[in-house]
């Protein structure tokens, strides 16, 4: 398989509605930011990509073992943690500054968790004796483009709600983060049951 095919796999994997846990995480990242903060969000999403790129490489090269059930549980936990952070820090100038001071590292750490979740899918698509550089590069670039598309959609809805409808950014953050946290909580129950009770 060539670069283009792995790029397509990465793009489709991040935008797959059946794999909506990763979409939820991107929505959670965007929830407390406005369109004028697009540079910050782009850096956050890139930090996430770097984190899961590292994890993908380590897991695919079998340097780090992957406990699938634990990773599948930690993914919704990371989504809930992001939502709680959004709700705890209002999207004020001071709140945004606090977010930027620590969020990059935290998002990268969450990216490692999500990357480990991606690793099994990637390994299943690899051809025997195939070089890993092209698949990793193509897959990660596809994921990054897909994530930026999701960010653009989030910003479009934010613009309609906040700028056109003249609603408070805080209200948008609370509504989106609460909704995403609710879905993530249900995923935590489901994945937690699989982890602890098989």
UniProtKB/TrEMBL annotation:
Keywords: Membrane, Transmembrane, Transmembrane helix. The chain crosses the membrane at residues 42-61, 67-89, 101-121, 141-162, 174-193. It comes from the Bacteria. InterPro entries: Put_HupE_UreJ. Pfam families: HupE_UreJ_2. This is HupE / UreJ protein. It comes from Saprospira grandis (strain Lewin).
